[in-house]
Each structure stands twice: as structure tokens, then as C-alpha cells.
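Work Package 4 report. The design task specified in the project plan requires that, given a folded chain encoded as C-alpha cells, an amino acid be chosen for each position. We show below one input record used in the internal validation round.
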């Protein structure tokens, strides 16, 4: 029986990130602080130098990033990438397909988190807009998210309210996310379980179904939350 899951190992997604070098009000350069609700995220630093600032209910931390560093964090971690010198990262995202379907909420001030339409108006980057306009919008939403992020750092007791607002924003998408998870990360894990069962029974037939795949990015230089992205299409 051929494995129905065709994506990257373990149901992950991969992208190549050049972190924004745009200066912010605090004098640092970098990306847009945000939080994932169901996906862990990992960094493999391939060039440059910088840091990731993180904010959780356990407190605020700064993790230095340099070539060779591997860093990762779990859902609920508010994170902000800081670019100190041409920071470049290969990003690994859990649950391929869910991040692309909106499993991230920017740390906008509370008045922008009241409903999906208000949030989308403050964060959406039109794909058909000229590049200069896309850059302007990406930078403006970064600065807006930094305002909310600074407020959370100054009053970390407000993290719980941000968590609740973020969960309310994504609730209409949960059924779609579950279907993506079933087709992706869960299918990948189930395939391993099936293979273990076959091997235990002395059945090696799945080894005859081995395949090799390769892909190039489907988009180059996309304006992401943290920087310019070379991204691959999510497995379906």
C-alpha cells in the first residue's frame, strides 16, 4: 500500500527567510512579533547574526542567533526576530499547511483583535499590489504589532487576554485546520505506525513503494511576518 502522505518528513514545512532590516522605534531592526496557536516553529540559522526575543507566561527571554544555531519554541510563544547583521534562517514549521492557513496572530493592540474583519484589514497584504506598496503595508503592520508587543512586555499579565483574543480570531478556521492536520501531520505519523505494524508481521511490502521527490520554492521574496520568504507549497 502506497503511503498517502506525500509531504516533507514528519509533516513539516520549510522556508528560507531573510529577516527584515527595517529599523523600529526602539532602534532595533527586524520582523513582526506574533504567536502561533497550534504549531511549533524551529530556526536553523544559515547566515548573519541576530536574536529572537520571546515572551511567554514564564517571562521574557532573548536567544542569540548565529550560523549553526538551532532554536525552536512551542505554541503560545510570542516571538520577535531581531536582525543585527544580515540574518538568514531556514524555518521549520510544524503541521505543514496550518501556518499557511493562518495559524499566527500578530501582537496588534487590542482594538485590532476584536473580530476577523478588523484584524484582516490591519494585516492583509494584497498579492496584486506593487512591491513598494506591499513593503509599505508589511512595515506598517510590523510597527503596529510592535506597539502591541511593547504593551505586553510592560504588562505581561495581559498575555492571557491576548491569548483569548487570538483564539477567538482563529476559531472560524478550526474545522479547516483539522482537515489539513488529518491530511498532513497526522497522516505522516499514521504511516509510520502502519509501517511498524507491517515490520512486526514480517511484511516489507512498503519498502517496494519507495520514491524520491524534490521541489524548488513556489514563491521568492514574499513579504512575510519576519522578513522576505522563499516558500514552498504546503503539502495537500
Amino acid at each position: 500500500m502506497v503511503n498517502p502522505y506525500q509531504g516533507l518528513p514528519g509533516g513539516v514545512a520549510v522556508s528560507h527567510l531573510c529577516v527584515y532590516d527595517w529599523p523600529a522605534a526602539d532602534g532595533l531592526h527586524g520582523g513582526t512579533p506574533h504567536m502561533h496557536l497550534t504549531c511549533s516553529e524551529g530556526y536553523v540559522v544559515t547566515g548573519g547574526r541576530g536574536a529572537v526575543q520571546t515572551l511567554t507566561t514564564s517571562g521574557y527571554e532573548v536567544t542569540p542567533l548565529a550560523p549553526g544555531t538551532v532554536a525552536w519554541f512551542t505554541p503560545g510563544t510570542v516571538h520577535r526576530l531581531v536582525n543585527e547583521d544580515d540574518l538568514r534562517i531556514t524555518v521549520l514549521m510544524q503541521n505543514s499547511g496550518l501556518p499557511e492557513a493562518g495559524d499566527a496572530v500578530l501582537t496588534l493592540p487590542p482594538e485590532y483583535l476584536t473580530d476577523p474583519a478588523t484584524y484582516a484589514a490591519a494585516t492583509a497584504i494584497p498579492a496584486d499590489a506593487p512591491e513598494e506598496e506591499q513593503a509599505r503595508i508589511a512595515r506598517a503592520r510590523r510597527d503596529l504589532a510592535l506597539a502591541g508587543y511593547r504593551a505586553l512586555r510592560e504588562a505581561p499579565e495581559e498575555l492571557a487576554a491576548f491569548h483569548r483574543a487570538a483564539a477567538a480570531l482563529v476559531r472560524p478556521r478550526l474545522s479547516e485546520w483539522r482537515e489539513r492536520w488529518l491530511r498532513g501531520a497526522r497522516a505522516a505519523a499514521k504511516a509510520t505506525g502502519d509501517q511498524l505494524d507491517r515490520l512486526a508481521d514480517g511484511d516489507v511490502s512498503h519498502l517496494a513503494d519507495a520514491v524520491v521527490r524534490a521541489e524548488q520554492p513556489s514563491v521568492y521574496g514574499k513579504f512575510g511576518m519576519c522578513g522576505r520568504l522563499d516558500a514552498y507549497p504546503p503539502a495537500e
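Strands lie at 13-19, 34-35, 41-56, 59-65, 70-73, 78-93, 105-106, 219-223, 227-231. Validation will be extended to a larger panel in the next phase.
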